């Protein structure tokens, strides 16, 4: 039995990693998101097409965290990303193989922090503008003002 994988919901979602922060924009909703720390490692696993168990194993290799905590955390975070329509199940994937955990002597693991999906809506109207039709003579990002009132 294969485990499901997820993919970025493109073209609705665009993203870029800048100085260790993943910035995600939902073009349909006008919301944008920020991922840091543990969340960026989970995001990297999604980009690589890793299954949920493979992402959990990745966290176990990087962080000082119990397996059950890592599993629950990844499951919850993936659900948040799905709820925000940032990721969708990848029907064309058979799930990347779970890498076997190999004990790495003398490797200091980072303290585990639960991943956070920070959502911002302060630019919602600006991101939803049609840069061709909804701007004034000054151009984007200046929205047309309705003077018919």
Describe the structure.
This protein has 149 residues and is an alpha+beta fold. The chain is built from four helices and eight strands. The protein is globular, with a radius of gyration of 19 Å. The model has no long low-confidence stretch (mean pLDDT 83).
Question: How would you summarize what this structure contains?
Answer:
With 149 residues, this protein is an alpha+beta fold. The chain contains four helices and eight strands; from the N terminus they run ββββααβαβββα.
Q: Rg from C-alpha positions?
A: 19 Å
Number of strands: 8
> What is the straight-line distance between the termini?
62 Å
The percentage helix is: 25-40%
Low-confidence stretches: none
Largest sheet: 4 strands, antiparallel
Encode the helix/strand succession as letters. Answer: EEEEHHEHEEEH
Reconstruct the topology from this structure.
Blueprint: E1 6-8, E2 13-18, E3 21-26, E4 31-35, H1 38-47, H2 52-62, E5 63-64, H3 67-83, E6 87-89, E7 110-111, E8 118-120, H4 124-128
Parallel strand pairs: 5-7
Antiparallel strand pairs: 1-6, 2-3, 3-4, 4-8
Helix pairs in contact: 1-2, 2-3
Descriptive keywords:
8 strands; 4 helices; 4-stranded antiparallel beta sheet; single chain; 149 residues; two-stranded antiparallel ribbon; alpha+beta; 20% strand; globular
């Amino acid at each position: 039995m294969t485990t499901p994988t997820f993919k970025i919901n493109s073209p609705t979602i665009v993203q870029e990693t800048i100085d260790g922060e993943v910035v995600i924009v939902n073009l349909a909703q006008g919301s944008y998101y920020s991922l840091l720390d543990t969340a960026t490692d989970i995001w990297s696993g999604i980009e690589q097409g890793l299954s949920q168990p493979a992402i959990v194993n990745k966290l176990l290799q990087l962080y000082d965290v119990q397996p059950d905590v890592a599993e629950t955390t990844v499951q919850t975070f993936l659900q948040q990303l799905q709820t925000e329509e940032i990721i969708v199940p990848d029907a064309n994937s058979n799930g990347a193989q779970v890498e076997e955990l190999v004990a790495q002597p003398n490797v200091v693991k980072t303290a585990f922090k639960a991943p956070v999906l920070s959502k911002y809506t302060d630019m919602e109207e600006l991101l939803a503008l049609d840069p061709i039709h909804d701007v004034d003579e000054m151009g984007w990002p200046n929205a047309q003002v309705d003077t018919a009132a």
